[in-house]
Amino acid sequence: MAVLRIITFGDPILKEPCREVAEITGKTRRLADDLVETMYHASGLGLAANQTGVVERIFVFDLGEGPRVCINPRIIFESPELLEEEEGCLSLPGVQILVARPQVVEIEYTDLEGKTRRLRGEGLMARLFRHELDHLDGRLLLERAGREERVRALRQMQDAAGD
Predict the structure, then answer these.
(1) What is residue 46's three-state secondary structure?
(2) CATH of the domain at 66
(3) How far is it, in rounded angstroms, from Cα 135 to Cα 48?
(4) Is residue 131 within 8 Å of 143, Cβ to Cβ?
(5) pTM for this one?
(6) Which terminus of the chain has a smaller tally of CB atoms within 10 A, N or C?
(7) 116 strand-pairing partners
(8) Are 110 and 117 in contact (CB under 8 A)?
């Protein structure tokens, strides 16, 4: 396993929609292992492949029950009820942004064995699913924030870059 470089705000690859994984290969498994290792190294809860420069529909996460790998995930249900909370992103280091997300999100994905799985997440898990799927669709956290939150976050990033 290897720790990969996490791409940060400003890199155009973060805006690219990721392509479907056609076949689960040894390369796919190595990427999944590297994503997990990188997520842990960065103290993150989740990580999408394009955050490391790989434009494929894969994300990993661990909310305390061990790592999970989601290949070609898609949302099959989102609750209309939203919850507004601060959210961070490994590609926006040091920034917390107030974002409204669905309270419940259910996804369908393929695991590393090629089996189709479903997961229903509430609260933090729902927020994580939506966040990582946004990455895979080429959408950044800043795009989910209101104008004032975006300006505040951009100032935070500028201040951090000046340190």
Answers:
(1) strand
(2) 3.90.45.10
(3) 6
(4) no
(5) 0.93
(6) C
(7) 110
(8) yes
Q: What range defines the domain where residue 65 resides?
A: 12-162
Residues 142, 144, 147: CA angle, nearest 5 degrees: 70
Our answer to whether residue 132 is catalytic in this structure is yes
Q: pLDDT in tens for each of the 163 residues of the chain?
A: 899 999 999 899 999 999 999 999 999 999 999 999 999 999 999 999 999 999 999 999 999 999 999 999 999 999 999 999 999 999 998 888 889 999 999 999 999 999 999 999 999 999 999 999 999 999 998 888 888 888 888 888 777 776 5
CA atoms within 13 A on the CB side of 25: 4
134 close to 105: Cβ distance less than 8 angstroms: no
Catalytic residue among 56, 87, 132, 149: 132
For the chain, the domain total comes to: 1
Answer for the pair 67, 76: CB distance below 8 angstroms, yes or no. no
Q: Residue 100: which region, alpha, beta or left (left: phi > 0; alpha: psi -120 to 50)?
A: beta
Is residue 2 in a domain? no
